[in-house]
Amino acid sequence: MLALRDVLVSYPGFDCRYTLDVPRGSLCALVGPSGGGKTTLLSAIAGFEPVAAGSMTFDGVDLLPLAPARRPVSMLFQDWNLFPHLDAAANVGLGIRPDLRLSPADREAVASVLARVGLAGMDGRRPADLSGGERQRVALARALVMRRPLMLLDEAFAALDPGLRRDMLDLVDALRREHGLTVLMSIHTPDDVAGLADSMAFVAEGRIRAAGPPAAILGSDDPLVVRFLGRRASGAAVSAP
Amino acid sequence: MRLAGLAASALVVGVVFVALWGLVRAGEGIDTAVLASPYLHRIIRFSLLQAGLSTVLSLLLGAALALALLRRQAFPGRGALLGLLATATVLPAVVVVFAVVAVFGRSGWLGSALAALGWDAGSWLYGLPGILIAHVFLNAPFCARVYLRALEAQPPESWRLAAHLGLTPAATFRCLDAPVLARETPALATLVFLLCFTSFAVVLALGGGPDRATLEVAIYEALRLDADFGRAALLSALQLGLGGLLAAAFVLASRRGGESAGANRHALRPDLASPALRTIDGVVLAIALAFLAPPVASILAGFAAVSSLLQADVLRAAGTSVAIAAAAAVTAVGLALALALSARDLRTRRRRPRAAGLYAGIAFAPLALPPFTLVAGLYVVLRGHVDASTMGVPMVVVVNALMALPFAMRLLEPPLALAQERHGRLADSLGIDGIGRLRLVDWPLLRGSLFGALATAAALSMGDLGVIAFFGGSELTTLPLLLYQRLGAYRMEEAAAVAMLLTAVVFALALIAQTGRDADARAA
Fold first, then answer.
1. Using N-to-C axis directions, what is the helix angle for B492-523 and B275-300, rounded to 10°?
2. What residues have CB less than 8 Å from B336, skipping those under 6 apart?
3. Do A142 and A172 belong together in one domain?
4. B396-419: per-residue pLDDT in tens?
5. What phi and psi, each to the nearest 5 degrees, are found at residue B70?
């Protein structure tokens, strides 16, 4: 289980403080307004943001003393998940050997995982020759070969069109079930994870305002949730006059 | 990376510290009454006067030229004028001195033309007029290019709005152009003033007398002509203080917001059809062409004596220049890369912005250090231990490398920051570090700028007539020194040939530098 207790990320004049539990093997969606602290939370878990106080464990292991590369975490960003001068196979291979000295067995593993994400035969293509969805599939493939149990997605599919976005989320869900991954993802549109997310956390003003089953969060009367979802205070959807 | 950064900073700080210690030693017991001497006051007054006038004239001509080029996007010769600006920007100071003498000197093109008309203007060039012409020639094109780039980078929405509102030419200038010029001017003015205040080659050659010197020239004269190390130390301390203030002012003035990249949308400007502006732009462009073209053309006159370039002394000087430039460039870029990588690592991964700022500060410190201050200090310390005749080449390499260090740093920092911004977190999460990070993550975005930095540092060293003027002689001559010697001996045709060769080499290096930056821009 990923357990965060009063994790404090401090900026001049602004503090973010998080408490959250994500059970092992589950998918938790982070929703909330832009600038509310979703990326900061994911970055703190990945080790990119220094944590000033609190505790953060995964399956009982303290994450805070670990450097980003030592954490049991793989992360996908919205952009620049791939090095543009390396082909798909090399980008995935970095997940096995950062110095890219790959053995024949490593290359086989790379080809196999690329096939698993639907990119069989595309090993030699560079990012510029791939579509947006294919690029994210390469990044997913790399996350898989890293064999890290906690996967973080920071609006990783936000730039894709709705149909492709859903395909990618289905793929993430399938991989989660196959490999027993714990997935924590920030998303823009709550509808995207309908039926996929086991839990949801609403992040705003640097705090987790509510966490629980998606239906409970989306039906919350918290004014920030209501405003974020564009509902009237009564819960009715905003309609044109 | 951290070790490399520490070693580079220790080297730079060590050299500077030894030089300052040497100056303190040389200055022991010196009569500080020199500070109150009328000679020193005259020098400082003259330095301030020529630097102030040079700055104002350069900014005015640069701004007028930039606006005219912005408004007139298509006229015959626009490309040639832009090429002239680019050429004038990279010309070594000593070549500009030659060009100014060749055109405006008593026996130059203008003097000869006036003489043919029966009017002898006399030796008006040497002194303030010559210095101003050379400084404006060197700096106005640079100002024009900086202003033009900033004006062209305005967001397209501004132009659309101006066209939509039908703004008058005066309102267009007030609302769109003036704020950009005002934003760019403080940093540009400080930089031009700093360059003119510390000018050496131009003032040495065109000053025309000891009273019309800059502190830099006065230090040179104290060292070379009088071997008075105490006076050199005192003048260096003064130069260091004033240069430091100006450099700090430049750093402060340079802190400004980002710019929007623009595309070609100037056809939307509402003031293009104004007859008054058309006339003004035409006059400005004609003045710029008349001012810039003849000196550049005078360098091309070197073709007439191109065979003189095969003389043994020219070949030897060229070889020495290339060797010194190569060594200085590699040293400067090596130091800059080590400092930039360490500063980035401290800023982004270790979150120690103050320590990162220290590394960056070390790289930019030479901006405040006049070359002769370094030379004077190092010479005082080393002369007891090292044969003075063997000191020349290493000293010139070290000082040229330190002088090029801020420029190399400035070229290397942006691509490194971009690589960090794009791939830093990914590289961290994948555990890509050290040389592997440089090779895999940074190199694709860095390589163009790295070659650009090498070319820039080499160009600065190739064209430098500073430290070499102190150490140089019959045994050690570079192309700039040879040009200066030929100019002094009135061997104008041979001087033109050397100026042409020097210009060609520096221009080629500038082209390489630009190609490197363009390659990085494409990679980004």
1. 120
2. B363, B405, B408, B409, B411, B412, B453
3. no
4. 999 999 989 988 998 898 889 889
5. -65, -45
Q: How confident is the model at residue B266 (pLDDT cuts 50, 70, 90)?
A: low
Q: Give mean pLDDT, residues B149-153.
A: 85
Helix axes B78-90, B38-71, angle to 10 degrees: 150
CB contacts of A75 in chain B (<8 Å) are 425-426, 429
Separation of alpha carbons A34 and A43, rounded Å: 15
**Lookup: tokens for B240:** 């260091």
CB B481 within 8 A of CB B472: yes
What domain range is A103 assigned to? 80-147
- At residue A31, φ and ψ (nearest 5 deg) are -125, 165
> Does residue A220 sit within a domain?
no
Query: Residues A195-223, buried b or exposed e (16+ Cβ, 10 A)?
Result: ebbbbbbbbbebbbbbbeebeebbebeee
Residues of A within an 8 Å Cβ radius of B: 43, 46-48, 50, 67-71, 73-75, 77, 79-81, 83-86, 94-95, 98-100, 146
pLDDT in tens, B7-64: 998 998 888 888 888 877 877 767 677 777 888 888 889 989 999 999 999 999 999 9
- Give me the number of domains chain A comprises: 2
pLDDT 10s digits, B431-483:
888 888 999 899 988 988 898 899 989 998 998 888 888 888 878 899 999 99
Give the residue from chain B lying closest to A94, CA to CA. B430
ipTM of the complex: 0.72
Residue A95: HSE in the Cβ half-sphere, 13 Å Cα cutoff: 28
CA distance A166 to B475: 76
Q: What residues of A are in contact with residue B422 (Cβ under 8 Å)?
A: 79-80
CATH code at A163? 3.40.50.300
A137 shares its domain with A165: no
Cβ-based contacts of A95 with chain B (< 8 Å)? 430
